[in-house]
Design brief:
The structure is a homodimer of 434-residue chains. With 434 residues, the first copy, chain A, is of the alpha/beta class. Chain A is built from eleven helices and 27 strands.
Chain lengths: 434, 434
């Protein structure tokens, strides 16, 4: 099947970067192999909605094979990249090897605990479908445990929720959780009032949503407080365990008794990124991201592209952020470089088109930063809705998601409130994924 | 809160029996406590649709608290019944005790391997949400593994699916799986043709759907064969392991190489049913079901009701089957007995109203037996659809399910095709729940 003169493009990772690279190679005379550990593309920006019971996993996941079904030059392989033979140009999988002429590394990011990996069990992060269903189980279980707890102090600990990190994910989680407590679960319990839940949103910076302009951070903070969230900024977490969180503030140390902590504070690259760096001699930054050339290739290896969360490319004085639009644009760019090389032309430098920065805070509120235009409140929320439905459209789930959101908006209810059984049990009983 | 003269009704289990008992006690002057290990009611008849990727778990599960939110005399407890103090009239949970004046045991059924519990790992059954997502992962993973397998014999084993048990669950699973192979996945793969998949449906009886009249069994068999399923009846499974299934037929022993086996052959009662039998001195049948009085109480314990799959009540010469309508009617009946006792009246005997027996076979085919009326083909399928949507209506998911089914009917696609990571990995890689 493979001919000598056909370029074999191998893409590691089916997230926004890898998927958009594959799609952009649709009409290029190459053979594309997309390798992913999972059989689906995940719409990560809506993962917090699974964690808070608004959406089901299937609504934000689409099988990679379906998405690329009609693209005849492309095949999808379920497999895990474990080594890179950079000299022999082969991607080594756990059970085989795939030769390439061009390699696009798009293996994304994972949670980062800044040297405190032991915290992971008590403060799960939100990167995968399993993370989301696990967090969903823990959030919902906390209310169940509080309902049964006779000791007022312990009940208060069960009704205290700590979200570490007030970036977009942390803010969106906190807003959704406040709505669960105030609206969704209202009247469901007999011994507790769910609106007594304390939702603390911690961040080391001096304001929420640090990447946004100050004016929008303030607006977001007001919206959060209005929903019942307590943002606490300038706070450093020094300890996380089963029974609480210890923080360091300007005023000294403080202990918060809680049974439910969610980690939204930091990400690092996938393990495979380190393997690529080692195999190619590329440099990595503090977070493990590979420093790439302006055309997104690895220095000395023009056939190896690194894109999305795995790459560090300076833009206007600082590294591009790890968000979906960067990954999508870089995926399309890497595909374009490969296509122009086939035509014998050289590559240009990647240029980022910033389409704006959005975060949503509960029902009908949000912040949006387009540089020239800054809005908050319901107009930002409407924008957020429009943008996300537009992107989701490609995954055929748009109508379902729209209907579910419509329902929820009208009824304050959430359709996917399952506490599932699994390996990591909150309260020794229920948890895991489902 | 509790007064001496208020009757405390405790219901163990929030399936069809327990939920309908609780709902029927809505206007009765009692205090109802519904205890379940899980926080949701599961619409079990559609579990096979989760296992085959048509529906998401959240679409057939509804939080018990929501379903009973407005019923002020009822509280829901998340907890596991581990003991019964029949003399002291207390239900003992893993972490506490609940006193009762009346107890309704509605703890349902679980998979039964007839003494071969070791088969469970290689032949998962379909009783819980986790079972369903695990089976979904295994079915989908088998196609992925086949796509990558160079050895034709092993590829054939990956593309061979064995369903043990040709009752309604087995038939519905087989039909849906045949459609996945023929339609849903068509064109998704590059190395395999998914319609080469062999789907074997085994049963020890001499025909599929043994509880149905022969004429409908024959119609169902024709529909299955038309879809590409190979029913094999009069077959006894003697061994299940990682690499295949050994069967005994009239012609002797036979080995089927397969990596994917689903167990739909038998059920037994929950462990708690045995505890109830021991504590009350009640008799159990071969499958563990408690032999109950005509009013569904345990002999010698008029305050203990056993209903649904946990009970054995003879009706027209044989025990009532373990299906949702029996459990629902028995739940309502137990509630009525409790209500009439409060008014000082005695109890009548439970009478089963058989509303018919339905099974669906893929798109637009099915069988329906109403005694006086027997239909098959699309009219039976339409009936099935109507009945299930009507019952689902109560769980607010009706519209979503209807839309998803509509989509799927028109597009041959399935929205919830996630292979998730978990403890029980098919092919050492992907599996578990999600």
């Amino acid at each position: 099947m493979r001919k000598c003169c056909v370029r074999r493009v191998v893409i590691a990772g089916g997230g926004f970067g890898g998927l958009y690279a594959a799609k952009a190679l649709r009409h290029t005379p190459v053979e594309v192999t997309l390798v992913d550990r999972r059989n689906f593309h995940l719409f990560q920006p809506l993962l917090y909605q699974v964690a808070t019971g608004s959406l089901s996993p299937g609504e934000i996941a689409a099988p990679l094979r379906s998405l690329l079904r009609d693209q005849k030059n492309t095949r999808v392989l379920l497999g895990e990249a474990v080594e890179l033979d950079a000299a022999g140009r082969r991607l080594i999988l756990a059970d085989g090897a795939v030769p390439y002429d061009s390699l696009i590394v798009a293996t994304g990011a994972r949670n980062h605990y800044f040297g405190h990996d032991a915290w992971q069990a008590d403060a799960p992060g939100l990167k995968s479908i399993e993370d989301a269903t696990h967090i969903r189980s823990r959030l919902l279980y906390a209310f169940e445990a509080a309902e049964r707890e006779p000791d007022p102090e312990l009940r208060r600990a069960w009704l205290t929720f700590v979200i570490v990190g007030a970036g977009a994910t942390g803010v969106e989680l906190a807003g959704a959780l406040a709505e669960i407590a105030r609206d969704t679960l209202r009247g469901d319990f007999r011994s507790i009032h769910t609106d007594e839940a304390r939702i603390l949103l911690l961040d080391g910076a001096d304001r929420v949503l640090p990447p946004f302009p100050e004016q929008l951070s303030s607006a977001a903070e007001r919206s959060l407080v209005h929903l019942g969230v307590r943002p606490r900024t300038g706070v450093r977490v020094t300890e996380v365990d089963r029974e609480g969180v210890t923080i360091q503030t300007m005023q000294g140390g403080e202990r918060i008794a809680t049974r439910t902590v969610v980690w939204a504070a930091g990400i690092t690259v996938s393990e495979f990124t380190g393997i690529v760096a080692k195999a190619t001699g590329a440099q990595q930054d503090r977070l493990g991201r590979i420093l790439v050339n302006p055309d997104l290739t690895v220095p000395g290896h023009p056939e190896v592209f690194v894109i999305g969360d795995a790459a560090n490319l300076e833009w206007k004085g600082k590294p591009l952020p790890g968000v979906a639009p960067v990954a999508m644009q870089q995926g399309r760019f890497a595909a374009a470089v490969i296509a122009s090389r086939i035509k014998g032309r050289g590559g240009a430098a990647f240029r980022y088109l910033n389409k704006g920065n959005l975060a949503v805070i509960g029902r009908a509120s949000g912040v949006a930063d387009f540089g020239f235009l800054r809005v908050h409140g319901w107009p930002a929320w409407l924008l957020w809705l429009t943008v996300h439905l537009t992107y989701l459209a490609q995954f055929r789930n748009r109508v379902l998601v729209f209907i579910r959101w419509g329902f929820q908006y009208l009824t304050f209810d959430r359709g996917a409130r399952i506490i599932s059984m699994g390996a990591n049990d909150p309260g020794d009983r229920a948890g895991g994924s489902g």
